[in-house]
Write a structure and sequence with these properties.
Belongs to the peptidase M20A family. It comes from Fuerstiella marisgermanici. Its cofactor is Co(2+); Zn(2+). It catalyses: N-succinyl-(2S,6S)-2,6-diaminopimelate + H2O = (2S,6S)-2,6-diaminopimelate + succinate. It is a single chain. The protein is α/β, with parallel strands linked by helices. Helix content is 29%, strand content 22%. The chain has helices spanning 11-19, 39-52, 114-134, 155-160, 220-241, 288-297, 322-336, 350-355, 380-394, and strands spanning 55-62, 65-72, 80-86, 103-105, 108-110, 141-147, 179-182, 190-194, 196-205, 252-260, 270-279, 305-306, 311-313, 341-344, 360-362, 377-379. Strand 1 (55-62) and strand 2 form a beta hairpin. 44% of the residues are buried.
């Protein structure tokens, strides 16, 4: 257990403490060790909210993996803003700096999660603390959510958006918030649209035999080679046939992983690939896999097996978040000068809150170019400005009117 957070600590102090607490997402790998999962960060967050004297909840999503929620109640306000930041980070293999030993130098702080997204979390926590301590007269009520498993299968946010839909799941988030702001590194721009993703496995089946006479078997890897040729053709087709979104670009397909066979002297009886299909706002997600399956099967003379998607993350649409985006950009203007409403190709939790009918945007300190890198860092100046923007946004009495 870490030492109880002190309310006088700066945003840099808080970020340094969060970096020093490993919360690595194992990304589906069978690994063990103290650096994995979010438990110790969840412990820290509970202590932080306890030190503020606010109502909080710790809700188990999966064994040892929790969402931590706290609420600032603003007297007389009928508006609620949801601020969300995820607790987990990507793995640390290949890093060239100490992953969990934050270093402050040259206006930067380094370490795993500094940029993605413990910096955004620290900035939100500081803004939340100011609301509790200063209690601005015109502030909205604020739900601060710290979710688990963003980097892999999004268990945390999937669970979170059910809380106001299923009575009894949460005492603090029992009704739908008016708007949601999701922390990710956006360089203090405001992300109003992004692509979604559907990920699934494709399998080819063969018949195993001794490699000394391959004619006695059916090589599943050879069959997969034919599938891959069709997928490469389809990947080019989808970029040309699906009209790109004005802000976040076009639809794409990519094969990112392939496995097959058990030994070099055995003709393989199965081969498996993993497919990443990026979906743009306006596409019908329900048809993505079905369309690809038909395309593949029509061009091959053997059966190809499509597993059900193991991840379906919708896109973030800019159809209903212009008012929120304008409010955030107004706050940024006052803190850091003009910034822009943008679209991005990657996905975030905002797609899930948006799909749950909550107008949502993405905003935070840092550059996406630094996320998941071997020398991850965050500019302290942006960290401090983001904290101010989050606070001022929550004080904006015209935000949801």
């Amino acid at each position: 257990m870490t030492a109880a957070p002190v309310v006088s600590k700066t945003v840099v102090d808080i970020l340094a403490e969060l970096i020093a607490i490993p919360s690595v997402n194992p990304m589906g790998q069978d690994v063990q060790g103290d650096i994995y999962f979010e438990g110790r960060v969840s412990d820290w967050l509970v202590e932080f909210f306890q030190s503020l004297g606010v109502a909080y909840e710790r809700i188990e999503v999966a064994p040892g993996r929790d969402n931590v929620i706290a609420k600032f109640d603003s007297p007389g306000s009928d508006r609620t803003i949801l601020l969300d930041a995820h607790q987990d980070t990507v793995p640390v293999e290949g890093m060239t700096i100490p992953a969990f030993e934050p270093k402050i130098e040259g206006g930067r702080i380094t370490g795993r999660g500094a940029c993605d997204v413990k910096g955004g979390m620290a900035a939100m926590l500081i803004a939340f603390r100011r609301l509790v301590r200063e209690r601005p007269a015109n502030a909205a009520s604020v739900i601060m959510t710290c979710t688990c498993d963003e980097e892999a299968t999004t268990l945390g946010i999937n669970d979170l958006v059910t809380y106001w839909q299923q009575p009894g799941r949460s005492g603090l988030l029992s009704s739908k918030p008016d708007v949601a702001v999701i922390a990710e590194p956006t360089g203090l721009d405001v992300v109003v649209a992004h692509r979604g993703v559907t990920r699934f496995k494709i399998r080819t089946a063969g018949r195993a035999c001794h490699s000394s006479d391959p004619t006695q078997g059916v090589n599943a890897i050879y069959r997969m080679a034919s599938v891959l040729a069709v997928l490469e053709e389809y990947a080019d087709l989808v970029t040309r046939k699906v009209k790109p979104h004005a802000l976040c670009g076009g639809a794409t397909l990519s094969v990112g992983r392939i496995t097959g066979g058990t030994s070099v002297n055995i003709v393989p009886d199965e081969c498996v690939i993993e497919v990443d299909r990026r979906v743009i706002p306006g596409e019908k997600r329900s048809e993505v896999v079905a369309h690809l399956r038909r395309y593949v099967q029509e061009r091959l003379d053997f059966d190809v097996i499509f597993d059900p998607p193991w991840l379906e993350s919708p896109p973030l649409t800019d159809a209903d978040n212009s008012e929120l985006a304008s409010a955030v950009l107004k706050c940024v203007q006052e803190v850091d000068g003009p910034h822009s409403a943008i679209g991005v190709p990657y996905g975030t939790h905002a797609s899930r809150t948006c799909s749950a009918e909550v107008p949502s945007i993405v905003f935070g300190p840092g550059s996406i170019d630094q996320a998941h890198t071997k020398d991850e860092f965050l500019e302290i100046d942006q960290l401090e400005k983001a904290a101010e923007v989050y606070f001022q946004l929550c004080c904006d009495d015209g935000l949801t009117k």
